[in-house]
Amino acid sequence: MVHALLFFSALRPLEWAKPLILLLILSSASSANAIDVQVGQAVRPEGAVILVVDGLGASYVYPEHNAYALDGTLLKKALLFNLTGSGARVVDLRVPVPETTKSHSVLVTGDSDVDPQLLGPTIFDAARKEGYLCLAVLERGDAMPMLQEMDAVLYLEDNSISGSEPITGFRAGTPAGLCSLFQEWRDKFASYTEAQGVAGYAGYNCWGLDAAADIVEHLLGNHFLMLVNVGAVDSAGHNLGLEGYLEAVAALDVPLGRLAEACRKNNVLLIITADHGMSFQSTEDKGGHSAEKYAKRLEALRVPLVVLGPGIDELNLGGRWSEVDIAPTVLNALNISCDHPFEGQPLPIKCSYDLSVVGAPEGVALLRDGRLLANASGDWQYNFKGLERGLYSIQAGGESRDVLMNGDLVLDLTDRAAPLGSMKKIIAVIIIMTINLAGAAVIIRIWRR
Ligand SMILES: [Zn+2]
């Protein structure tokens, strides 16, 4: 209604219609007001690290899954205690496309059709609006638009494990201490990767994880979102075959533990996932993931997702989920709102959730086990924040209804709040209808001119 009116008034501005237009906008805006009621404790992480272990298939590290070669052989697995030991672990999460650059773009946009060369709105854009620093430590695999999202970036362009040199990039205004820390880590790369064979691959990943842990410690007291991509598990799968792949995976455990500890100490969320897995023709062959014979295999499509940190539950989440759910989950866990609609949904992995009750102008009471937790009145929408999982009841307009909280929820009572009963409501409805009829008249008049 208001949109239509503004559209027509933009075409043919009418001086006499302006007060009515304003009145309509105001009557519409008043229904968008909401009262926030903090019921449980508010949780606000300092920031988040998203760790992408390039090429790590859940089939090789999750106790629930097995990995098979294309020839049917049951494959060995690797132990990663710091991945599977705690936090919220999503058992079955798949990537839409098992290809590095595309998948990294899906991860930060939540859009399965994203073009890595254009990217569009990302979780970094949403975080920057809230004053977060946007940072990245990237070992290959990302297009320029991803690097341009960042305030500070440490990036390896070269594909080789040793002998390559990371580059740094900074936006104007990035704190000087952070720039010199990124430069220090650029200079440490050579010493991490001088070993030959699998040890060189392990060192390559260890550099990325240790750099990330050090940056987290340096950023105490700052809000930040950091993307970390370690590339050597993928390289080991492609170059060394299954044995080398599993050794490179197992070698992640110790540096991953150091990163997890740095995040825990500083109240920072840690999200661990991968861009795709890895599939092998046999125990003797080198691996792949994007070629046609591999790309439909669960070994290539199913990736780990573990989230650790403030406000996150300890659980194994069942059901089938997608990589597109990660972007809204990260913003939801950081309490960052985003106008842009997501393809996926926040995963129910938090300790507490928000219940929004809409359309109860006479007020709402929230109860649990017959005990009053909170009440609010005088508005159209009430946001009860911080509710643990479980059964609650909502009392509004003389009625009670049960609500099961297991994720953020909107309870719309608009239909129930029909214009029956009090004289006050009838008068309110007459006023709203009059305003709407006046608005319709304005549109018709403008249209006819
Ligand atoms: Zn990859």
In short:
This protein is α/β, with parallel strands linked by helices. It has two domains: 2-42 and 352-425, Sandwich (Immunoglobulin-like); 47-333, 3-Layer(aba) Sandwich (Alkaline Phosphatase, subunit A).
Question: What does this protein structure show overall?
Answer:
The chain is of the alpha/beta class and 449 residues long. It has two domains: 2-42 and 352-425, Immunoglobulin-like, CATH 2.60.40; 47-333, Alkaline Phosphatase, subunit A (3-Layer(aba) Sandwich), CATH 3.40.720.10. The protein contains 15 helices and 19 strands. It has helices at 2-11, 18-30, 81-84, 100-109, 123-129, 144-147, 176-192, 198-218, 232-240, 242-250, 253-265, 292-295, 298-301, 326-333, 423-448, and strands spanning 35-38, 47-53, 88-94, 133-139, 152-156, 167-170, 224-230, 268-273, 279-280, 287-288, 302-308, 315-322, 352-358, 364-368, 371-376, 381-388, 390-396, 399-405, 409-412. A nine-stranded mixed sheet has the order 6-5-4-7-2-8-11-3-12, sandwiched between helices. A hairpin with a 2-residue loop joins strand 17 and strand 18. Helix 2 (18-30) packs across helix 15, helix 7 (176-192) packs antiparallel against helix 8 (198-218) and helix 9 packs antiparallel against helix 10 (242-250). The chain is globular, with a radius of gyration of 26 Å. Residues 1-31, 417-422 and 441-449 have low confidence and may be disordered. Zinc ion binds at residues 54-55, 100, 141, 234, 275-276.
Keywords:
449 residues, nine-stranded mixed sheet, 19 strands, single chain, four-stranded mixed sheet, Immunoglobulin-like, disordered N terminus, 24% strand, 15 helices, alpha/beta, globular, Alkaline Phosphatase, subunit A, binds zinc ion, 2 domains
